[in-house]
Design brief:
mainly alpha; 63% helix
Length: 65
C-alpha cells in the first residue's frame, strides 16, 4: 500500500517503519521501489519534527575530535 501523505502520528510512523522494512530489498523502478523512495523522506520529515537531535555540547564535540 502506497503512503501518499505526511506521517502525522506515532502509529502512522511505526506502520511506515514496518513497511520500509518489508521494502528494503525492492528494486528501483518497481512499484515497491517507488514506494520505498516515497516513504523514506516522509519518515525523515516526521523524525526531524518529533525527535530533533540537539546540537552537541561544544566540549564533547572537541573531545570527540
Amino acid at each position: 500500500m502506497m503512503q501518499t501523505r505526511l506521517i502525522k502520528t506515532q502509529r502512522e510512523y511505526l506502520a511506515a517503519l514496518r513497511r520500509v522494512e518489508q521494502l528494503m530489498d525492492a528494486r528501483r523502478g518497481t512499484p515497491q521501489g517507488d514506494e520505498l523512495d516515497l516513504l523514506a523522506p516522509l519518515i525523515e520529515i516526521y523524525e526531524e519534527k518529533h525527535t530533533p537531535v540537539p546540537p552537541p555540547d561544544p566540549v564533547a564535540a572537541i573531545d570527540l575530535r
